[in-house]
Specification:
Blueprint (H helix, E strand, L loop, with lengths): L3 E4 L4 E4 L3 E3 L2 E4 L5 E4 L2 E7 L4 H6 L12 E7 L2 E8 L2 E6 L4 E3 L3 H9 L4 H11 L8 E4 L4 E2 L1
Antiparallel strand pairs: 1-2, 1-10, 2-11, 3-4, 5-6, 6-7, 7-8, 8-9, 11-12
Helix pairs in contact: 2-3
Amino acid sequence: MTTIVYDHKNKQVALDSRITAGNLIVTDEGSKHTEKDGEHWFFCGETSDYDQLIELAHNDKPEVLPDCSAIMVKGGVAWLVAFNGEYCSHSKMQASRGIGSGGEFAMCALDFGKTAKEAVEYAITRDSGTGGKVHVYDIDKGEFV
């Protein structure tokens, strides 16, 4: 699926570039980032559902739940956008967090002092849904580094 990790201490989001379909690796050069209206979205889950998630506000209850979640950066603040039951939840992130199939591996790496990039690189060694190039977005700089 993917690995996205938010490093709260260093204000960075790191993510892989592997796109899969079931057990098939579609590409290791995919993009899981979208910028819209000054917001930066970093997605895991079904690529076909990304646009639907962007359009949902906090507490929206769509008829069909998108099969994805994201870390969204807006105004220098990271938000977890996911579903709490049937409702879309936008939660301000106040601690580091990993999402996607390799998220737990990445969190363990952060716990042992690895950078966000190194954490995703570690997840690549353990999670078959994670791979390709690792991209790092620095929230304070407002750019990929």
